[in-house]
Amino acid sequence: MIRARILGVGRYLPERVVTNFDLAKMFDTSDEWIQQRTGIVERRFADEGVYCSDLAAHASRQAIQNAGLQLEDIDFLIFATLSPDHHFPGSGVYLQAKLGLSEIGCLDVRNQCTGFLYGLAVADAFVRAGVYKRVLLVGAEVHSSALNFTNAGRDVAVLFGDGAGAVVVGPSEDESRGILTTHLHADGRYAEILKLDIWDISKKPYITETSLTNGDIWPKMIGKEVFKHAVTKIPEVIEAVLKENNLKTTDIDLYIPHQANLRINQFAAHRLGVPQEKFYSNIEAYGNTTAASIPIALSEILEKKIISENNLIVMVSFGSGFTWAASLIRW
Ligand code: ACO
Q1: DSSP category for residue 250
Q2: What is the mean pLDDT of residues 95-112?
Q3: Taking a C-beta distance cutoff of 8 angstroms, is the pair 179, 317 a contact?
Q4: Is 113 a catalytic residue?
Q5: Count of beta carbons in the 10 Å neighbourhood of residue 86
Q6: Check: CATH 3.40.605.10 for 178-330?
């Protein structure tokens, strides 16, 4: 059996920095409230006119270059996002055209914060089965267009930022290195806890005057429920991945959790008995970039040389759906 591994990584963050103090000028909040509850200090927002696929294109070019490949080497594309350019067609085809890729298949993944790990599982399966050889997987978000910057939306608006991260997945020349396992989960009974109502195909037409004025254009979240489930499911799925591979928490060199809330990741690390410094964090700089957060973090980690060949890493995520997942990689 061929093993798949990540051949290259890239990231792109829009230049515009928006601090907690900037948000406090728009609605009633404070740097102290946001930092205490989330760990976020600032985030990046894309300018008007910028699409999710634009951010993705920057990150993708960097990932392909980092893998030592050319655009024409890519034979499949997976795009994970909850903020697609348009409802349809998928953002993957926009990215394909922007990169000038040939007529390769493009798959959109709509699994919110877990989108990157779902995409990684698909890329891994394709490569291992020999279906495709070089899969470009990108997670990208433009959240800033869909946040309610008034008191009514402040619980959600402070959390999110824009950005993109990308990887190229391909065959590993060394069978012991690469993606060892990915566990994917979902529980649709909690779909209503964190969602965007505006697009409702049961309505005729699917967007009504009322839905435009009653706040349905903004995401809705029961934050405490998300928190409660996240701190349970994140340790649970990590333990399952470790058990399957006969590993202990101490065998892992670095955990790369989705960056939703520093407190969630601190709770999860504490429950596992893992030192906080083994749970990578960059939420202070970018906020929650949903499908982009894990590849952005990975790109930084490699740049800072925090991990090296043969290190064991666990990537883990939890988010809207609810969906959650973990992936074990020998780098
Ligand atoms: N600034 C100041 N005060 C605020 C803000 C704000 N931005 N937002 C809410 N408040 C107020 C509330 O109105 C409330 O006031 P009250 O006590 O007078 O009613 C008070 O602060 C406490 O509100 P809570 O909602 O109870 O605050 P909590 O401690 O639960 O923290 C938070 C809220 C940070 C959102 C937390 O619940 C959380 O992080 N949950 C997880 C969210 C998450 O990770 N979401 C992303 C999932 S990923 C994905 O799939 C997209």
Answers
A1: G
A2: 97
A3: no
A4: yes
A5: 11
A6: no
